[in-house]
Specification:
Helix 9 (193-207) runs antiparallel to helix 10 (211-219). By secondary structure, the chain is an alpha/beta fold. The longest helix is centred in the last third of the chain and has 22 residues, at 230-251. It is elongated. A six-stranded mixed sheet has the order 4-3-5-2-1-6, with helices on both faces. It has helices at residues 2-18, 54-62, 77-84, 99-113, 125-130, 144-154, 165-172, 177-190, 193-207, 211-219, 224-227, 230-251, 269-275, and strands spanning 26-30, 38-43, 65-68, 159-161, 254-259, 279-282.
Length: 284
Amino acid sequence: MKKYLLFASLLAFASLNAQALEKSLLWKISGNGLTQPSYLYGTIHLTCDATLEPSAVKAMEQTQQLYLELDMDDPSIQSAMMSAMVMTGGQKMTELAKPEDVKIVSDYLQKNLGMPLEMMNPVKPIFVSMMFLTKLLDCPIQSVEENLMKLSAAQKEEVFGLETVQEQMATLDAVPYKEQMAELVKSAKSDLENDKKETKMLADLYKAKDIEGMLKAARESENVTTSKYENELLTKRNKNWIPKIEKIAKEKPTFFGVGAAHLAGDNGVIKLLRKQGFKVEAVK
């Protein structure tokens, strides 16, 4: 009888853990010793409309500090990013692809950015790809993080980061330079066709607050830097954040804003916090 009850309990736990999360961007964190709740909010880095939903604004008012993935108002962040852009070992982009593909990329850069590949030869290809982010949506790009920071400043509250620039840039280095270059070549050859399609799909999923759908889309992306390296880009970072979130939330009620793809899944921030004993519930 005891074995049956244990098996039934394990089955119920597994079933609960496998359940899809609700469609919500804002989640309330309570329990596990917290005297006041903190909040977890899924952000998106590229959007046409970064307007914060009223429930998020209210949650910001009820907390005392803002934590993003990075401390975006740190004056040293730009120089730190610049130093992380150069490939190690003196490698060059012209050495990472066939001459004909290198020419395609160089022509594309000249046409769209006004500079040939040789000017950016030592730069990691993934950073060159990022230079085209503003072309991926047919609208002026807005930032959810920027709006959160503005609201935090209006409330005279501090902004902090869950990780350093160096830590975040190190996750990108998990993607080999040749694979980064292959993705840049694909983008140049197609004139960003697939990049635009996937960005639009993610924007639509975000608008629908479908965090499970966003994780699924990342896993199925044709861009291998997204689909192949989930462990480095999402899972490891999520697990690194959990003890930090626990410590921070116990010290002061906090609003945490991280990319929405980090929220869902068994290794997402929501279920990892629940495993630590926190109550994490969707805010409608």
